[in-house]
Design a protein that fits this description.
The chain has 2 domains: 260 residues, L-amino peptidase D-ALA esterase/amidase (4-Layer Sandwich), CATH 3.60.70.12; 121 residues, Ubiquitin-like (UB roll), CATH 3.10.20.340. Helix content is 30%, strand content 26%. α5 links the parallel β8 and β9. α1 packs across α2, α2 packs parallel to α3 and α5 packs across α6. The longest helix has 21 residues. It is globular and about 70 Å long. Keywords: Acyltransferase, Amino-acid biosynthesis, Arginine biosynthesis, Autocatalytic cleavage, Cytoplasm, Multifunctional enzyme, Transferase. This is Arginine biosynthesis bifunctional protein ArgJ. Pathway: Amino-acid biosynthesis; L-arginine biosynthesis; L-ornithine and N-acetyl-L-glutamate from L-glutamate and N(2)-acetyl-L-ornithine (cyclic): step 1/1; Amino-acid biosynthesis; L-arginine biosynthesis; N(2)-acetyl-L-ornithine from L-glutamate: step 1/4.
């Protein structure tokens, strides 16, 4: 038995973790744009990265280290992705670390922002030299990694085990656009003092990615820098596999849902539940098709319960389906029932009321099996075009 309790605060509450964020002049606004996570003793680190074939330089730099390496430092910048920058992009990371006076062990860099520009090395080095590695300011860090985010994204949990021991786990993340299943234009840094084996770290990230970060979509695009990183310093000497896996799932789910809700210009966070599909693959394909569909997203933006767009998207996904077994609902309002049109004026009015909420479900019962999957998405409106039309400026 175990208990998982949400607690207020940031990752700096975890013993042995330090962090901060500053303005290094990367953002013209003068807002925080450079941050770090420092660990008092080298810790285990595992990560999952984007499936985009053009991985950014920071990801390639990470992968140059030996398997199961330890680190004590993560440097994070916004405004510049250091992607599509060739070998020089990797060399620039080594140049930055070589100019810092800290005692760094296998330092890691993570970047987010505009693709195709070289890193402003001098600004980053000068900014990083001002870091106080004893700082505990998770709030500053959360702001430093933001790009088009409307708000920072953090969470913290304490896990109490039956033997009386406990451990903490928390995260800081960014992400609002260029988000699609197979991760997103997102960075997520998860810290824990759990005494977790490296093999379990790998498994936990893989298992929980499927139903969290790999189940969200804002706009159907997959970035070059997507990273979910787990750092474990084991200082609590406390661990139980089932408890940790569940706590990590909660952390990753929290961060994923905050990203969907913050989709650039989004007003609605929507769960697309596909149930009773013939296979698990069918359920995933249909749910993700719905979360990615521009026609569905714009209907949600217009608060139009157009079930035709839902049905059309399921059919176009090419899963095994039949209109005679399909049931479509907005929350508990059935609008299509196994070939029967339920969309009279009264039902449409009730469904429209559901779509006025900022969170709701679109439930699609395929009626051919017992497999299910839930994907998460948001609406798409004018603000998204406005933000991305001039993103580089």
């Amino acid at each position: 038995m175990f208990t998982i309790l949400p607690i207020k605060g940031f990752i700096d509450q975890i013993d042995g973790f330090y962090c901060d964020g500053i303005s290094a002049g990367l953002k013209p606004s003068g807002d925080n744009d450079l941050g770090f996570i420092y660990v008092s003793e080298p810790c285990d680190v595992q990560a999952v990265f984007t499936e985009n074939k053009f991985q950014a330089a920071p990801l390639k730099h990470f992968l140059q280290y030996e398997e199961n390496f330890k680190t004590n430092f993560v440097l994070i910048n916004s405004k510049n992705a250091n992607a599509m920058t060739g070998k020089k992009g990797i060399e620039d990371i080594d140049t930055i670390f070589s100019q810092l006076d800290f005692d760094l062990i296998n330092p890691i860099m993570s970047s987010t922002g505009v693709i195709g520009n070289p890193l402003p090395i001098e600004k980053i080095v000068n900014g990083a030299k001002s870091f106080d590695l004893s700082s505990k300011s998770g709030e500053n860090l959360s702001k430093a990694i933001m790009t088009t985010d409307a708000y920072s994204k953090t969470c913290m949990y304490e896990v109490k085990l039956e033997d009386g021991s406990s451990f903490k786990i928390g995260a800081v993340a960014k992400g609002a656009g260029m988000i699609n299943p197979n991760l997103a234009t997102m960075l997520c840094f998860i810290c824990t003092d759990a005494n977790i084996p490296v093999s379990d770290m790998k498994e936990a990230l893989k298992v929980n990615s499927e139903t969290t970060f790999n189940a969200i979509s804002v706009d159907g695009d997959t970035s070059t820098n997507d990273t979910v990183m787990l750092l474990a310093n084991k200082k609590s000497n406390s661990y139980e596999k089932q408890a940790f896996f569940e706590a990590l799932r909660l952390v990753m789910h929290d961060m994923a849902m905050l990203m969907v809700a913050d989709g650039e210009g989004a007003k609605k966070a929507v769960a697309f539940e596909v149930i009773n599909a013939l296979t698990k693959e069918d359920a995933q394909i249909a749910a993700k098709a719905l979360s990615n569909s521009l026609l569905v997203k714009t209907a949600l933006f217009g608060e139009d319960p157009n079930f035709g767009r839902i049905a059309s998207t399921i059919g176009a996904s090419k899963i095994t389906c039949n209109e005679e077994t399909l049931v479509i609902s907005y929350n508990n309002i059935i609008v299509y029932n196994k070939g029967e049109l339920c969309f009279d004026a009264n039902t449409e009015a009730k469904a429209s009321e559901v779509l006025k909420d900022d969170k709701f479900k679109v439930i699609c019962d395929i009626g051919l099996g017992d497999k299910s999957f839930t994907a998460y998405g948001c609406d798409l409106g004018y603000k998204y075009v406005e933000i991305n039309a001039d993103y580089r400026t």
